[in-house]
Hints:
It holds the Pfam family LysR_substrate. The protein is an alpha/beta fold. The chain has three domains: about 5-100, Orthogonal Bundle (Arc Repressor Mutant, subunit A); about 105-160, Periplasmic binding protein-like II (D-Maltodextrin-Binding Protein, domain 2); about 180-260, Periplasmic binding protein-like II (D-Maltodextrin-Binding Protein, domain 2, 3-Layer(aba) Sandwich). The chain contains nine helices and eleven strands. The chain has helices spanning about 15-30, 30-40, 40-55, 70-100, 115-130, 140-150, 195-200, 210-225, 240-245, and strands at about 5, 15, 60-65, 65-70, 105-110, 135-140, 155-160, 180, 205, 230-235, 255.
Amino acid sequence: MPHLTGFGSNDVTVEIRYLRYFVAAAEHGSFRKAACVLNVRVSAVSRRVRDLEDQLGASLFQRHAGGVCLTLAGQRFLRRVRVALQQISDGAKDVAAIGRAQEGGIKVGIFSSLASGFLFELLRAYDKEHSGVLVELVDGNPAEHVLAVRQLRLDVAFITGTATWDDCETEHLWSERVFVVLPCAHRLVAKDEVSWHDLSGESFIVSDAAPGPEIHDYLVQRLAGLGHHPAVHAHYVGRDVLLSMVAVGRGLTLTSEATTAAQIPCC
C-alpha cells in the first residue's frame, strides 16, 4: 500500500489512501459525500480518518449532525496534504511519460552514415512520433558501443555486421547494398553494376579503424572464393581522407549504400 513516511524518531507513516479520504471529506464537508465521490463505504472513510487522527495525535475534524468541519489543525494539514498529493501526481505523470517514451532522453550509438538510408529514416520517424524525447547521438566503432551498452552508458547502438555479443540483446534491422568507390578515370566507371569478377586483381585500401577490418574480411571472403587473394592495404586515416586517396588512384575501397548520398571527390 503506498504511504508517506519521514526519517526522524517522531516521524509518522501515513498511507496515501488516508490522505485522499481526508481531502475528500474536507472538500465536501461530509464523510457520506466523500464516500460517494470515492466510491467506498461511509464507514471506510470515517474509520480511515480516525486512524489518521490517531497517527497524527490531533483531531482534524469537528463532527456534527450536518457533517464535519476542519479544526485549526485540520486546516493547516489540508494545505500541506494538497501540495504533497499534487507533487505525487505530477511525479507519477512524469515517470509514466518517460515510460511511454513521450519525454526524457536516450543515448544512441551510431556507426553508419546519417546522410540517407534506413537509419536516417528511422531517426526522423522517431523524432516525429516522440518529439519530447531528446536523442543524443554518439559516434564510435562497434566494440566501443557494445562496451558502452554493457556499462549502461548507451541505451541502444546501431552497428554493422551480424556478430552476436554476450550480455546484449541484438536484432537484425536492415541490409544495405555494397558499393565500390572508383576514381573517375577507372576502367569500370562506365558500368552500372560491377561484379566481383570485375574486381579481381584490383588493389584495395581500407581504414585501420572500424569498419576497415570488417571491409578487409569481406573483400577476402568474396574474392578468395573466386581464386583471388586481394591486396588490401590498411591506412591510419578517416573515411574522408580514404575517399580522397581513392580519387588520386591509391586503390579502391568499399562503402555502404547509406554513404552514397555524401559528396565523394573524384579528381
